[in-house]
Known about the structure:
By secondary structure, the protein is an all-alpha fold. The protein folds into 3 domains: 101 residues, no CATH class; 146 residues, Alpha Horseshoe (Serine Threonine Protein Phosphatase 5, Tetratricopeptide repeat), CATH 1.25.40; 210 residues, Rhomboid-like fold. 72% of the residues lie in helices and 1% in strands. The protein is built from 27 helices and 2 strands. Strands 1-2 form a two-stranded antiparallel sheet. Helix 4 runs antiparallel to helix 5.
Amino acid sequence: MDLSHLLLWMIGANSLVLVLRSIVARRLNGWSVISIGMLIGLACSLYLSPGQTHLYVGIPWVSLIFVPLLLNAATAWLVTHHYYRLGIVLANVVAWLHPWDNMWQQPNLIRAVRHLYRGEQDRARAILDSLKSDDSPLSTLARMLSSRVDGDWDGILAWIRASHAIERLNDATLIDVYLQALGETGQHQLMLDEFERLLILQKRVPDGFEMNTMSMRLAAYCGEVDIAEKLLSGPLNRLANDTRQFWIATAYQGAGQIAAAEEILCRLTQSPDKQLARRAEMRRSEPLATFPLEAHTPASDDIFHQMAETVGHESHFAVMSAPPSRRAPVTWLIILSLLIVFFFEIPGGATNEENMVGMGALIAPFSYTPGEYHRYVFAAFLHFGSLHLMMNIFGLMWFGQRLERAWGSLAMLACYLFTAVVAMVLFEPILELFTSFNPDEQAVVLVGASGGVMGLIGALLGHLILGAFVGSSPRVKRDLFGLGLIVILQTFFDVNSPEVSATVHLTGAALGFLFAMVYVPMTLRHARVLRRKAADAEYSDPPIATVESQTT
């Protein structure tokens, strides 16, 4: 496989995805502007100098998009896990490579967060005050952190109203700060009304993590302990444990369960995170207002009921926007097996066709190796070179972990093996049926786990399509759109890459899709049976989220 050819497809696909993401978010940023430039440069270079395109466009893409995005993600991970010093170093590198979108201020924001973690409020406040220069998401975040330091949530509401920010609440960070300020000041009804107006009625689809965070806080302020706990133990489990405990205590206060909240908050006052310990002490000395009984209107109950349904539905179906499962034993077992097989390929040459055939590669026409049915299986574990192997490992890590999280280990393994092997079996019949392939004149050597990886993608596609039909969730539909775009781009790549077997890839994807069409309805029927049994036992219908969560 030609590395330069693969690089061009990666540049085009990545740039297109970044542009589409900015369109969906209704916000033009530096990443999308650079991506538009990359697409224009790619088209011009392919027309003027196709042989050097990978150099003319590849170097700027790696420097301006790939490396900054990678380092930015690493910075976020480091800050989340309190490695502030290294996070500041990486943030400075990102600022040099991507000096837009307030990236130059990012290191200062991390310094402020580090001071807050250490309990150095005055030093943090001085930095945060210097960041409140405009209405950017970073400045909004600085205002929220300042409000946490001073407990001045009325002040941030006054700023939102005075600056007319309330009229342009189209940024997820600003919406989050606004709703949190309403919750902290006890304005429950207005918070519910604004949540419905800004996110439900307008059908905004923020980042999955942002949306779940806002929903969790709303549930906590209104005393919906069960919903808050499900969000914190599910899609928000990447948060630090002390942070999750703080919001559970907040939910207990909102529900009027003061003793339960006090037990958690008392423990959090000893947290190594001094800012969180200070907030816990403030919660103890100035408890939040309990969500009043009269505030439980049919409209608010509908919001909570819809939120409970959405939590259960999205935890099962919104697999692409959720983080990969931390426990995906089968995915890692498959990856390990591919690496072990590749290790045995190396002595004879991982790109030597004779070596591949000797180790069990599939040869089409199949008449060359009559009765050697083991090749259908062995070929799915062999790879033609390290690049081929790494691409399939990346696909397994990205898609395999998500399907394993949604279906469980055994179902994911069954889908992978079924699609990987059957795609090999069907290669020659499909090729003869739809192309001019002549088994008497051509011989093809087939290796690779691509059929199984594409089977996982097809299964995820079927999973999302069914999820979009059985429930109403903008996040599931956005995941479906994103995965559909990946399938389209992958198909174009396969068709235009002679070294790649588009037949095996498309067959694997189709088989995975059919597998999902059979398996997912079976799990949903099982969920309905459990729901009926629970209803018979309790003489009332349980929340749908409770049932659906049992199928994850």
